[in-house]
């Protein structure tokens, strides 16, 4: 039987996982990515890979051992304080606990890229749209036909319009990101600890998270207009403990604004032969530690389904029937979670959310 022609649009974690597991099954795949190279931009901070989702995907990809060699189980430490700096919660992982170890997003993406056959990813090859039953259109006016095109191209997917008219909308919460090197600012590094550090007030938070190599990323987050100038954002934290404000004073990076957008909870589409979605392209939701894990699990599950089924359409239907309701449940959880984290209750709402997750 002729091997199916499969295209993945987007070389993010979900699309790369799909490609890797397809190749594990001996199926060919082409990944189109608009960025010109793997290191064209910073890949952001750190991720916690969950047992049962992200780690399951890595196991299917044959990469779990290599992941564990890079991961930081100690990064599961969590510190929560109020705006005075008073410690309200300090959780440390038990010895041997690898249920949600941390790894830099860039390290994880590099691990997946390096696992693929040479030439799998077509760097610098943006996709304009997908039409019909799997025709990919490029900006230069050319196109290619595939048996299946998978949109793994994130929040502003070029594949999604072939299936759905929905577009992401602003959640009401904006993050402003910066960071520092612990070697230059050791006192702030000690405050953050080995994992994540968070301080909550009414409708706002100050968050920090350790990456590898002594890098710590800092985020100020607030509920309000997404175009608020950075000086006005920082002024929201006037009156907070000096130790907390030092996380904003002693930084090495510029401040970058990242407003949070999401698709409607329960976003779905009418099944269309030759096209499907995964990850943020399918179910963009607030970033509460779920998105990357879901995208990778979906990539692995879709690859398994394609390898096992005699018919591509049968495989995609089975994948969508499991993925869409699960994504809807997580979208509801993360949407409600964002409301709890950024509410007039401040840290009380945050603690209640974290207690519900145990």
TrEMBL record:
Pfam families: FAD_binding_3. It is found in: Cytoplasm. It comes from the Bacteria. Keywords: Cytoplasm, FAD, Flavoprotein, Monooxygenase, NADP, Nucleotide-binding, Oxidoreductase. InterPro entries: FAD-bd, FAD/NAD-bd_sf, TetX_monooxygenase. Residues 6-333 form the FAD-binding domain. FAD binds at residues 48, 105, 280. Transmembrane segments: none annotated. It catalyses: a tetracycline + NADPH + O2 + H(+) = an 11a-hydroxytetracycline + NADP(+) + H2O. NADPH binds at residue 41. Its cofactor is FAD. Belongs to the aromatic-ring hydroxylase family. TetX subfamily. An FAD-requiring monooxygenase active on some tetracycline antibiotic derivatives, which leads to their inactivation. Hydroxylates carbon 11a of tetracycline and some analogs. Monomer. This is Flavin-dependent monooxygenase. It comes from Nonomuraea helvata.
């Amino acid at each position: 039987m002729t091997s199916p022609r499969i295209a993945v649009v987007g070389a993010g974690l979900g699309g790369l996982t799909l490609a890797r597991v397809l190749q594990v099954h001996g199926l060919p795949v082409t990944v189109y990515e608009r960025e010109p190279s793997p290191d064209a931009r910073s890949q952001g901070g750190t991720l916690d890979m969950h047992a049962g989702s992200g780690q399951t995907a890595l196991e299917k990809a044959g990469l779990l051992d290599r992941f564990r060699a890079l991961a930081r189980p100690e990064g599961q430490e969590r510190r929560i304080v109020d705006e005075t700096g008073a410690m309200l919660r300090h959780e440390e992982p038990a010895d041997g606990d690898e249920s949600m170890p941390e790894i830099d997003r860039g390290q994880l993406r590099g691990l997946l890229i390096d696992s693929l056959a040479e030439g799998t990813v077509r760097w610098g090859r943006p996709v304009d749209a997908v039409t019909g039953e799997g025709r990919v259109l490029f900006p230069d006016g050319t196109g290619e036909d595939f048996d299946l095109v998978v949109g793994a191209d994130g929040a502003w997917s070029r594949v999604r319009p072939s299936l759905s008219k929905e577009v992401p909308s602003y959640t009401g919460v904006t993050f402003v990101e910066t960071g520092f090197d612990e070697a230059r600012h050791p006192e702030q590094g000690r405050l953050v600890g080995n994992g994540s550090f968070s301080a909550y007030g009414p409708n706002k938070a100050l968050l920090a998270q350790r990456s590898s190599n002594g890098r710590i990323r800092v985020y100020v987050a607030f509920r309000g207009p997404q175009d608020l100038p950075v000086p006005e954002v920082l002024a929201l934290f006037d009156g907070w403990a000096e130790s907390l404000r030092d996380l904003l004073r002693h930084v090495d990076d510029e401040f970058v604004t990242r407003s949070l957008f999401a698709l409607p909870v329960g976003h779905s589409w009418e099944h269309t032969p030759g096209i499907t979605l995964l990850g943020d392209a399918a179910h963009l939701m607030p970033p509460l530690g779920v998105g990357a894990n879901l995208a990778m699990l979906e990539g692995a599950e879709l690859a398994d389904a394609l390898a096992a089924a005699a018919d591509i359409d049968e495989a995609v239907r089975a994948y969508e029937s499991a993925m869409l309701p699960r994504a809807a449940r997580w979208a509801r959880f993360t949407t409600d979670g964002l409301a709890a984290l950024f509410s007039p209750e401040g840290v009380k709402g945050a603690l209640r959310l974290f207690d519900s997750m145990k």
